[in-house]
Amino acid sequence: MVRVKPILVGVLGLVLLNFAGGCALVDMKIDLAGYQPISKNQGASGAILVAKPSIGLTEKSKDGHLIIGAVKNGFGTRTANTTTDDSVPDWIANATRDELNAAGFSASVVDTLPPAVPAGIEIYINRVNVEDDTGAVTVAQVGEVNLRITLVKNGVAVKTLDVKGVGNCRRIIEANPGATKREALKYAVQAAYEKAMPEIVATFAK
Hints:
Structural class: alpha/beta
C-alpha cells in the first residue's frame, strides 16, 4: 500500500482549498473604510484644499453597485464582480487629505476649488481595481489605483502628476477575501502617494 506523507496531504489540501476558494459565483461587495496615511512630516506647511475627485468608473453590477474589480477562480477565470456602495471619490479625497496632513499641510476637502485658490489639488480617478491572483498554495488580492493629480497655485494649474499604485496582499489561506481586497486597495493608494507626495511638497514649497 502506498503511504502518502502527511506534509504532502497538507500541501494538496491547501492547493484544493485555494482553488475552491476562488470559485465564488456571486458578486463580492466590499467597503473602503480604514485608510491610514504613510506620509512622514516633510516640513510642509500652509493650507491646501482638495477638490472632490471626478471618476472614470461608471460600470455597475445588475444590482446597481459600482464594479471595482473581479472575483476569479483558481484557474484565473472571472466568475463574479467585486463591487462597492461606498463613494470612491470621497475615499480618495479623504485619503489625499490625510496624506497631506501627515506631510505637514493643513488640508481640507471641498466640492470644487474656489477661483484663485492659493493652493489646491484636483484629482481624476482613472482606475480603481482589485482582483484575485491564485498561486499554487497561496491566494493574493492585487489592488491597483491610477490617479491624475493636478496641482493648482493661485488658481492656475502648475503641474500634473500621473501616478499608479499597486498593492499586493498574499495569504496561504484566504479566510476573509473582502477584508483582504480592501487592504490591497489601501496599499495601492499608499503606493500612489508615496510617489506623488515629494512632488506635491516641492511644488507648494516654491
